[in-house]
Amino acid sequence: MSVVLHWFLPTSGDGRTVVERFHANRSLGAAALREPDVDYLAQIAQAAEHNGFTGVLTPTGTWCEDAWLTTAALLARTSTLKFLVAFRPGVISPTLAAQMAATYQRISRGRLLLNVVTGGDEVEQRRFGDWLDHDQRYARTDEFLHVVRAVWSGRPVDFAGSHYRVSGATVLAAPDPVPPIYFGGSSDAALPVAARRADVYLTWGEPPAQVAEKIGRVRELAGDRPIRFGVRLHTISRDTSAEAWREAEKLLEALDPAQVARAQEQLRASQSVGQQRMVALHGGDLSRGVRGLEVHPGLWAGIGLVRGGAGTALVGSHSEVADLIEEYHDLGVEEFVLSGYPHLEEAYWFGEGVRPLLARRGLLASSTHVNGPELSDPAGRITARVPLGGDPREAVHGRP
């Protein structure tokens, strides 16, 4: 069982501090220093591709650029990178979603992954015209994914449920390959839907024991149905542990207590069970200090003080971060959706520091880089890249 690595496109902005991203209301924190224009996002996508990530998650929400349009624009700026497009079933019909995915798969030549986001914030859902409550939204997602998968079979579909009714639903041609469906949710309403419909169940980066408990529940619900597991995390990886924790401390020092209090007020109001589990890790307590927010060796909850959604980071030396990834992998986690501030630079820190260590441990399918083989020092750090088909003496050296 190999590890699959993905990166993240910050379509709400990026910077050297934690850029807040809420669903209900705009944050009162510092503005993003790097606007999410297509040229900057292309740099991040190319960095992810260059560093051997399989795909990039592109989020959905009021304060993000649209994930479908943004990633479609980046197809021509990349070659092999896949796009994990987040979207909400409540705002489009399942037939249209099946058509969009099939078209995207053809024009991208198979580079689409789908992240279905049911939505945990009532304020934002109503902004998009969705007035269902939390559990009803998951019931609707269940029907939605049933119809989408049926339409992808290539045969006309008739369906009548509590939320959708279609007759003769079909598409021009079934997608080839069928895009895998990534799905998250921690509530009792979410887990059975994941077990029935998801190819990859995603969880935010809780401590390994809590992740193991979730995996066990989904596996039990899924029975004989195969399902993979993934975790969404930030990362701060450096040559030494001290350097990495100093970077975490810089992020913490940049937060204002009023900013944290405002953020926690909004996050605690979320209907998302997963969000409440994130909040419980740190309790909104800025005074605990950088190491006081370490909720498991190398797992830091400081980002969740102000950021909605994924709020934990892997922090440590490249070897320590690789160790924690291996710990999650031993639980059954195959896919890691990672990010860091700023996303451009952190893609290189992880790609050049941690990825070769994972390859040396046999956790990656191949150690060959998409842009050529890698040359490493004894510690596993990439010191150079060899152009495809090139002579190692022509390798490109250096790290941003």
From TrEMBL:
MF-aspect GO terms: alkanesulfonate monooxygenase activity
Alphabetically ordered keywords of this record: Flavoprotein, FMN, Monooxygenase, Oxidoreductase
InterPro entries with a match to the protein in the record: Luciferase-like_dom (IPR011251), Luciferase-like_sf (IPR036661), SsuD_RutA_monooxygenase (IPR050172)
Position of the signal peptide: none
GO biological process: alkanesulfonate catabolic process
Luciferase-like domain mapped to chain residues: 21-334
Superkingdom of source: Bacteria
PANTHER family cross-referenced by the UniProt entry: ALKANESULFONATE MONOOXYGENASE (PTHR42847), ALKANESULFONATE MONOOXYGENASE-RELATED (PTHR42847:SF4)
Protein name, as recorded: Alkanesulfonate monooxygenase
Native species: Saccharothrix carnea
